[in-house]
Known about the structure:
mainly alpha; Complex 1 LYR protein domain-containing protein
Amino acid sequence: IYFLLLFVFRTYAIRRIRDAFRENKNVADPAKIEELLNKAKANLEVIHRQVTIGQMYSTEKLVIESPGNT
């Protein structure tokens, strides 16, 4: 389950990054670019925190998930 959550978080983050770049590819105002970069850095910090929290509270496999119990 943990790896599935990592995959979901990763694909969501990649999709949001691509969408943001596509939405703002024609921005030429330096102030707006700086604002967008700061927003992207803040989002990256959120992703790092989520990964850290996910690693801290990872769960052990359930009995039915263990090999040999199928």
